[in-house]
Design a protein that fits this description.
Elements lengths: L25 E2 L4 E2 L4 E3 L4 E3 L4 E2 L4 E3 L6 E3 L4 E2 L4 E3 L4 E3 L4 E2 L4 E2 L2 E3 L13 E3 L2 E3 L4 E2 L4 E2 L4 E2 L4 E2 L4 E2 L7 E4 L4 E5 L1
Parallel strand pairs: 1-4, 2-5, 3-6, 4-7, 5-8, 6-9, 7-10, 8-11, 9-12, 10-15, 11-16, 12-17, 15-18, 16-19, 17-20, 19-21
Antiparallel strand pairs: 13-14, 21-22
Amino acid sequence: MGGNQRQDQSRVSHGSGQFERAQFRSIGDGVVIEPGVLVFHPENIEIGEDVYIGHYTILKGYYRGRMAIGSGAWIGQQCFFHSGGNLIIGKNVGIGPGVKIITSYHAEEGISKPILHSRIELSPVVIEDDADIGIGAIILPGVLIGRGAQVGAGAVVTRNVSAYAVVAGAPAQLLRMR
């Protein structure tokens, strides 16, 4: 590139998302990965045994951080999981179609810089064993969803959910305990 032109490093390809099972940090027996699933940085992804991952889901591993999906988990189609800040999904967790789980956000750095160009902050998401996440729910960075909790369809989870709580809404609110 000549003159004042430069390549913006944030505008580089992240790859095709194509993968081979041998590229995962670990992958258990009985794992079903449906056609159309895209996986980025599989070397940072661990999948337990008997996990189902539905069509067109994106497992967005990151060059650092960890994604761990526990044995017996069921993940519906068209989900998006980002694990730059670490994403830990427990055993026997059900995740409905279209769920989004995000572990990063742009830091607020005032108005002198576009938000898009502010630094990226990473914060883990943990979903404990036996939880259930309803269709289309969104789980934001830094959230812990307790064991056996249930998140309603379309909920936006902005803060921790207690074990065995049932939450719904945007933002998610406690409806009852199981």
